[in-house]
Model the fold of this input.
Amino acid sequence: MHISTKKGELAWAAGFLDGEGNFGCSRLKRKFTTSYVFNITAMQIDRRPLDRLASILGGSVTGPYKSSGLGTKMPYSWTVGGFPRGQAVVAAMWSFMSEPKQEQARLALGMYLTNFRSKIHPQHSWCKICAPEIYQRVADGVSQSRRKS
Done:
């Protein structure tokens, strides 16, 4: 998965997701098990902004889907699913995200971690607490590496 390191692109993506995106943790119930999936999604009638988002943050664009509303327009969907990829996207955009979206992302990551703590990959054990300072440190590290290059 490719995530852009360009400040302007990350700022655009964070702004777009601030208005059109959702950071969530979905519960999937099966016959004998329940699992949780962290995901970031956005839906649009026009596919082009979602393609741009995918070029900046990775993920996939799917659709169009049959609209459930009264309108006839069919939306497209962009998704980044899974904890490692979703967490990397959040960390890359953290310093550009609005406070409400930071809270939404922190809650979704926290829900995932709370419900799936035993299934976290060992390399991600440092993020058992979705603390903003962790993401800020990651974002600062990305910023510093950009200044050096």
